[in-house]
Design a protein that fits this description.
Blueprint: H1 3-28, H2 33-51, H3 59-65, H4 69-90, H5 97-124, H6 142-169, H7 176-207, H8 216-275, H9 287-301, H10 315-335, H11 363-380, H12 385-390
Helix pairs in contact: 1-2, 1-8, 2-4, 4-5, 4-6, 5-6, 6-7, 7-8, 8-9, 8-11, 10-11
Length: about 400
């Protein structure tokens, strides 16, 4: 197997895999009209990417359809370009639904007209749209011009119309994976339009005046545009489901991390919400609730704490101040009413209070700090060992 054939099979495999992925998504959202158009276009892309491979394995399929084979492949290509253009029309919610539907139907009429012209012209043509070099006496025939304009002209129009509409939507993409997939897909589509349709139209236009015109560089450009464009387009399309899978895995990983941090933070949370029950928000003991209530509890406790002896970003330094504040409150409770708590003393510290919790760039740094503070306080005996061992996130 040569390199080009291997690339074609790899491209076809990627396109078919992406198509299966999007079909599954459509079964979950069957009423999503833009997704229906996208899936239709991907199915057509899968067909053209697979049956276009020159291999004896696919010869029986071509033999079965006979002379209609060229109509099938060209119709798939033109319909795929239509789906590309209409998809970006339908997802543009800045236009009214009625306007989008009307434009989609008008463009469908243009597609049907182009396909009809393609089929009829070839059937009525005496030489079956042969190359001018093979029939120089008839190279000025209108059939050839109509046939190539209907096939290549429509494809070039639809591909670039879709690219223009896609560029208008790019500002709405904020996810870096989505933006990367967007640019790769657009580049692939434009490469196919130029390599296939523009090259074909250029070559046939010049052949109207020079029947021997057939430079190698145009043939190479056609192959590069067709193969390279489809391959780049396949990579861009594959990036979307890969990004979804990666995001799902990352979400699960972060959920597990948050659960582990929450378990380590629960002893500190229980202590602070016991000292200051009014900071409790209620609900499940998830990470957001526990971390928020720890922050509120530390803000309340700060008036009873000495100023941290060092950087409070160091969990040990912060634990020193927190332990002192909790000890002070415990001593006051024991000194009043036989150890029964009856509220704060009137001589508690006035603002500004010491800052116990620093600012952190992300949730993971904040959670790590809280967990280490809780671990340090547990080691000192400020937080009970048995309470930590029995705690579990809700």
């Amino acid at each position: 197997m040569d390199v080009e054939l291997a690339i074609r099979w790899a491209k076809a495999a990627v396109v078919c895999a992406v198509t299966v992925w999007e079909v599954v998504q459509l079964t979950r959202r069957p009423k999503d009209v833009p997704l229906r158009i996208l899936v239709t276009g991907l199915v057509l892309l899968s067909i053209t990417a697979t049956i276009g491979i020159r291999t004896p394995l696919l010869d029986p399929i071509q033999d079965f359809f006979g002379s209609s084979w060229i109509h099938i492949t060209n119709a798939c290509w033109m319909s795929m370009a239509y789906c590309w253009a209409v998809y970006f029309l339908l997802v543009n919610d800045e236009l009214s639904k009625a306007l989008r539907k009307r434009k989609a139907l008008i463009e469908l009429g243009v597609l049907v007209t182009a396909i009809v012209v393609m089929v009829v012209v070839k059937e009525i043509s005496i030489d079956g749209i042969q190359r001018p070099a093979r029939n120089p006496a008839r190279f000025h025939d209108w059939e050839r011009t109509a046939w190539y304009v209907s096939v290549g002209g429509y494809g070039l129009f639809a591909w670039f119309l879709g690219a223009f509409r896609a560029m208008a939507m790019r500002r709405k993409l904020t996810n870096p994976w989505a933006r990367a997939a967007f640019w790769i897909v657009v580049i692939g589509a434009v490469a196919m339009a130029i390599g296939v349709d523009a090259v074909t139209l250029t070559r046939q236009l010049v052949r109207q005046f020079d029947t021997s015109f057939d430079p190698d560089w145009l043939t190479q450009t056609y192959s590069i545009g067709q193969l390279g464009g489809q391959f780049v387009l396949a990579l861009g399309l594959a990036l979307a489901p890969l990004a979804a899978i990666a995001a799902g895995l990352r979400t699960r990983y972060e959920r597990r991390q948050r659960a582990r941090y929450t378990e380590r933070m629960l002893p500190l949370w229980r202590t602070l919400t016991t000292e200051f029950p009014y900071v409790a928000l209620g609900g499940e003991h998830d990470f957001d609730r526990v971390s928020t209530e720890i922050t509120d509890g530390l803000s309340e406790l700060a008036r009873d704490c000495p100023r941290p002896d060092g950087d409070p970003g160091d969990p040990r330094v912060a634990a020193d101040a927190i332990a002192a504040g909790l000890t002070r409150r415990a001593d006051r409770r024991q000194a009043r009413d036989g150890g029964q708590w009856a509220g704060d003393d009137l001589d508690t510290r006035e603002p500004p209070y010491p800052r116990l919790e620093p600012d952190f760039p992300g949730w993971r740094d904040r959670a790590e700090w809280m967990a280490k503070v809780a671990d340090d306080l547990r080691t000192r005996g400020v937080i009970g060992e048995d309470e930590y061992e029995s705690a579990a996130p809700g």
